[in-house]
Amino acid sequence: MKSLVRGPVFFGLLIVLPLFGLQHWVLNMLVFVLMFAVMSSAWNLVGGLAGYPSLGHAAFFGIGAYALGSLFKGQTVSSGYEPFLWLPVVGLIGALIGWPIAVISMRTRADVFAIVTITFLFVVQTLAFNLHGITGGAQGLALPIPPFPAATFEQPYYYVLVLLLSVAMGLTFGAARSKVGLALSAVRADEDKARGIGVPTTGVKVLAFSVSVGLTAMVGGVWAYYQSFIYPQFAVDPLITIAIVLMTFLGGRATLWGPILGAGILETGQQYLAYELGGSQFYLIAYAMIFLLIMLFLPRGILPTLVERLRRRRSSAAPAPAPRMETAA
Amino acid sequence: MHALIQGVILGILTGGVYALMASGQTLIFGIMKVINLAQGAMVILGAYLAYQLFTSFGIDPFLAIPITTVVMFWLGVAVQVVFLRPLRSEDRSELSLLITFAVALLLEGIMSVTWNTTHRSINTSYANGSWTVLGYQITLVRLWAFVLSLGALGLLFLLLNRTKFGRAVRATVQNPDSARLLGVEAQRVSALGFGLGAATAAAAGSVYGLLYPFNSGSHYDLISRLLSIVVLGGIGSVGGAMIAAVIVSTSSAIVASTVSPAWSEMTFFVILILVLLIRPQGLFGTVGRGSI
Q1: Chain A residues close to B269, C-beta within 8 Å
Q2: Band (A138; pLDDT cuts 50, 70, 90)
Q3: Rounded to an integer, what distance in angstroms lies between the CA atom of residue A284 and that of residue A290?
Q4: How is chain A split into domains, by residue range?
């Protein structure tokens, strides 16, 4: 019930936030935070809820970027909003590519799934450099220049991403309260038993993966249009996968708010690190170290740990219920 | 036809090196059920160590192998003890995957700080020597690499089949619970097994550095190749990994020499997908617990 209040308040705040005349660097950072919040939330659908950790989401980010780039190759835009209207198509392309991969790789175990997704990531990376006809190779691919006024340049991207975030969070929220969500957590808990009692495990896994990578591809499309130029090394970057996974784990996987919290903390932290360490390779070391520390000391994430601590405090503050139960018996 | 046979020769010779890398990876999986995504980064670290020993002290990369394998063995043990051992058993397989990925990035970061990102290659006096046999070119360094890899794999085989430690490893792979009941210290075997995997990476790294130019990002090229080999051979099967390595590298060398080098990168992904469609457990894998 509480999240029915929390959700609208959170999105209300997000909607009015840019109206306070924030500076460009703040808005630019918020756009990136939102991108990663959407992707972490989407990753959580399959990596958190179903317990199938995908390492290939960065490939779908790149696929989305190049899909939008191909749709608008050599074209100009008048109002500037046309690429956003094509985002559902971009998402569909991502989902259609993801679907057979999920069908093949989810037949066996989560290990094999992770292997196939990470291998797919590197194959797409190689293709991005080599398929000159589509991607322009290392020279990159230009998108139409957005005609938005400089004063409010970030706003269209910001609001589109807020919309995508509401979709991703709405799906997570809905999944937790529906048969699909129940089936997904059954898959995570014990897949063989779930299949044994007639849960359509393959169906829900593949569905979760396709939806998840579709959303990721749409974020890739928004990113491409925001940058208006795509280089393969940034479009298909293993660090994006790591960032998404790390954010979800930091905040708390299989929770509604965890991925958003994780994205908020890490993306701002990352921008700070990149600024302080000047994008040098120390940045990679810092990132990997943070990852390792979180895995070791906070493997369940911030939110679940906090919730449990709160619950424990409450139960120790309240009079112990155990004796009463004994007298009742 | 000439290009095809040349591709086969090249593929078999290169396959030996990949077999060495993959044997370590599949060994780690067999013992701990951990997919080591840092295996590629460890190979590149081995290559850098060999490069440094060669440029600073003039030690031949082949002779550097005893030094680098010992260093990397302890590094592998440290990774297992510090990062993998504390994991709770219920989410070990999922978290270990992410942890080894983070270790790979950590190693990449450290390597690019230490040696920056320009491509390095180890240029020995014999690097460009080659024999021509019946019109086919065989580069000397590749032949030596192949022989050395076979030698290292032979040592690994002896270690696994003729020593007490090897018996403990094989017991753990077959049935970890029974092994523990019979007095095998699972954590110790895991740590030493991870070290052994890293040591094979070091040996393979020396050879890799002789064959190809590399930089800190090269492990990305390696990791998907290695994973395809391991899946094709059957995860956890050392013998399977050796045969799979030759199959994968031969077919990608054939594609490179007859179609185009760009598509050879796709070959192993196609093989991976085909394996999963036709025989998901791999060539020599078993559905349940395996043997090495």
Answers
A1: 119-120, 123
A2: confident
A3: 10
A4: 2-237
ipTM for the whole complex: 0.81
Q: Give the max Cα distance, chain B.
A: 59
Bridge partner residues of B139 (DSSP)? B130
Give the global pTM.
Answer: 0.85
Q: How far is A104 from chain B (nearest CA, A)?
A: 7
Q: Which two tokens stand for residue B69?
A: 């394998």
Q: How far is CA A3 from the centre of its chain?
A: 20
Cα A230 → chain centroid: 20
Decide: B97 and B35 in contact? Cβ < 8 Å: yes
| Chain A interface test: which of B88, B221, B224, B248 (most A C-beta within 10 Å) | B224
Task: Tell me the DSSP string of A104-123.
Answer: HHTSS-HHHHHHHHHHHHHH
Count of residues for chain A? 329
Half-sphere CA count of B178, side-chain side, radius 13 A:
7
Q: A77-93 pLDDT, tens per residue?
A: 777 888 888 899 999 99
- The predicted-structure confidence for A222-279, as pLDDT tens digits, reads as follows 999 998 888 988 888 888 888 898 889 888 888 889 899 999 988 888 777 777 766 5
CA-CA distance, A301 to A169, in Å (whole number)? 18
Q: Are A108 and B86 inside 8 Å of each other by CB? A: no
Give the span between the Cα atoms of B204 and B143, in whole angstroms: 14
CB atoms within 10 A of CB A7: 16
Q: How far apart are CA A303 and CA A305, in angstroms?
A: 5
- How far is residue B211 from each of residues B61, B138, B141, B146, measured CA to CA in Å? 11, 13, 7, 11
